[in-house]
Amino acid sequence: MKLIDKKGKLFGKFNVIDIFVVLIVLVLAAGTYYKFGVMDKTSTAAAMEDVTYTVEIKCVRDYAFENVIKGDTLYDKASGNAIGQIVDIDFRPAKEVVEMLDGSAVMGEIENRYDVTLTVDAQAVVNNSGHFVNRTYELLVGSNKEFITKYFECEGQVGKIY
Predict the structure, then answer these.
(1) What tens digit of pLDDT does each residue of 28-71 get?
(2) What's the gap between Cα 113 and its chain centre?
(3) Pairing mode of beta strands 130-133, 9-10
(4) Alpha helices, DSSP H, located in 39-138
(5) What residues make up the domain containing 147?
(6) 29 with 80, same domain?
(7) Is 71 a member of any domain?
């Protein structure tokens, strides 16, 4: 007895194409069961926690700095989603390395520029994977992002997360 006969039947009883179709349906059914029955569900009811983080902004012009206001909502420029509220603003004169005439280098202040640290409060889902503001925006220490408020736009780096 041949494994597959002239009509394409396995052991003379089953059609090979039918077996492949049944296998595909079984694999899809098993995948569906695993996805919806066994895997951890992505819950939209996950508990939100208060998270405070800092945003470091370098060399902000003085006239732009005047538009940074406590209480403003901070947005991610790429998505337009709100990612927290500014609760504190710390600033200091911006500095850079300046080469002197004798060839030495010193730290010098940049006129009319500030290094700014924004402290931002937000609601986030906190789990082993990280901090997710609005369930989707992942906060990563050291990541460079573009931020905007109602009157201010900048590129900054996420600092500490509390």
Answers:
(1) 999 998 888 776 655 556 788 999 999 999 999 999 999 999 99
(2) 29
(3) unpaired
(4) 62-65
(5) 49-161
(6) no
(7) yes
> Residue type for 95, please?
K
| b/e burial code for range 113-148 (CB count within 10 A of at least 16 → b) | bbbbbbbbebbbbbeeeebbbbeebebeeeeebebb
Whether residue 92 is found in the same domain as residue 129: yes
The token pair at 82 is 């709100």
Q: What whole-number distance in Å separates Cα of residue 118 and Cα of residue 50?
A: 16
pLDDT tens-digit series, residues 107-161: 999 999 999 999 999 999 888 888 899 877 888 999 999 999 999 999 999 999 9
| Structure token pair of residue 4 | 């597959």
Q: Number of structural domains, the chain?
A: 2
Residue 6 to residues 11, 12, 44, 50, Cα–Cα distance (Å): 11, 9, 56, 70
- Within 10 angstroms of residue 82's Cβ, the number of other Cβ atoms is 15
Measured in residues, the chain has a length of: 162
Q: Are 99 and 60 in contact (CB under 8 A)?
A: no
Joined tokens for residue 39: 């895997």
